[in-house]
UniProtKB/TrEMBL annotation:
Residues 33-124 form the Bacterial SCP orthologue domain. Coiled coil: none annotated. InterPro entries: SCP2_sterol-bd_dom_sf, SCP_3. It comes from Paeniglutamicibacter kerguelensis. It comes from the Bacteria. It holds the Pfam family SCP_3. Gene3D superfamilies: 3.30.1050.40. This is Bacterial SCP orthologue domain-containing protein.
Length: 125
């Protein structure tokens, strides 16, 4: 079943590309918050559409959350497989600026559970 998109894909791709360009120039911190929010939300939707499932919850506070990765469905309470990270780290992973293993080593990513591994799904671009 396809996910319901809330972000226009063309606008989301443009926001993500804008972040990638700014990041390469070292000025991503100067980007407006709505642009970062759109890039994060678009990339979370993209992950959910490419890795449909409900066994892992990916949280990028305060911008968004999604469930992905095929496997046992979680329905109540805190999911057993949770990944949480800041927006800048998420966008760096999505864009391929950092690998999953390197991101974990920074200490900015919390990943709990047996399925909480996005190495096979990232980068998205």
């Amino acid at each position: 079943m396809a996910i319901k998109r809330r972000i226009n894909p063309a606008e989301g791709r443009a926001a993500l590309q804008h972040w990638i360009t700014a990041s390469a120039e070292g000025v991503e911190a100067d980007l407006p918050r709505p642009l970062i929010a759109m890039a994060v939300r678009y990339s979370l939707e993209e992950l959910a559409s490419r890795a449909e499932g409900n066994s892992v919850e990916v949280r990028v506070p305060p911008f968004g959350v999604t469930q992905c990765i095929p496997g046992p469905r979680h329905t109540r309470g805190t999911p057993p497989n949770v990944i949480e990270l800041p927006a800048d780290m998420w966008l760096a992973l999505v864009s391929g600026r950092i690998s999953w293993e390197a991101a974990l080593a920074t200490g900015k990513v919390t990943a709990s559970g047996l399925r909480a591994d996005l190495a096979a799904e990232l980068p998205l671009v």
